[in-house]
Automatic annotation (TrEMBL):
Lineage: Bacteria, Pseudomonadati, Pseudomonadota, Betaproteobacteria, Burkholderiales
Entry keyword annotation includes Transmembrane: yes
Domain of life, source organism: Bacteria
UniProt entry tagged with the keyword Transport: no
Pfam families reported for this sequence: EI24 (PF07264)
Residues annotated as transmembrane: 23-44, 81-112, 132-152, 158-181, 202-223, 229-259
Membrane topology: Multi-pass membrane protein
InterPro entries linked: CysZ/EI24
Protein name (record): EI24 domain-containing protein
Keywords recorded for this protein, A-Z: Membrane, Transmembrane, Transmembrane helix
Amino acid sequence: MIAVQQVVRAFGLALGGTMHPRMLWLSLRPFFIISVFWGCLIWLTWTPSLAMLSSFLTNSIFTNWIQDGLIWAGFDNARAWIAPFFFVMMIIPLIAISLLVLIAFTTVPAIVNSLCKQSLYSDLQSKRGGSLIGSLFYTFWSAFICLVLVMLTLPVWWIPPLFAILPPLFWGWLTMRLMSYDVLAGHASSEERDILIQQNRWSLLVMGIACGMLGAVPTFFWATSALALVLFPIVSFVALWIYSLIFVFAGLWFSHFLLEALQNLRKDELSKSLVVETRVIDSGER
């Protein structure tokens, strides 16, 4: 029951903090970086990628049934939009994962530093149990696992109800992994980090899945709307900023929850040590 109260309290603090001008700026910075990177990459590869994908979908014995099935179902112009549709479906997870990795690696530390200047966490001692190399390895290894799972299951994403189940699970697991490590890297020791993640693993997973469900909203619109294909550049920029804002909210939510959990852990350890010292002193006097 206490864990639920902490999750709800952290959610309320994160929701209010997301609209702070500094947090809005922190959501725009990675958005600009990823937009420029992927915008240039898509612009350079759009035509050859569509040509290769169209050829693959038409000639491969594993995929040519998709176009035939759509034409049989009455979509006579399927050959015109099937390649752009699949290209968008493949590029969305890559963009979302790269954005989440960038926010976890660069923005979450800024969020934690900003919160630790507030009175709620100003007395929290920094033990720096994480390192830059450790964060890099943890981030890219987690992202690689998530990307492999996404690519293996991508062909069934459009099948109900999997399109509503798989994305939140993947984004939730990855969000939980990245946020938990990077929030605690600067202030918790490695032992404290392991204890906190172990004690709160179900609460963290629920928070991650909740953030994944929020992140699935632009994914669903992006992948299922015909307007998204026609106005892909505009829609992609809007959806990307929504992703960025959701991930910043996730960073705030995990930061409030884990920093409070770290405070409570240290208070409990201090209380236990005081009790042990008191008993030792009492035994010595006797």
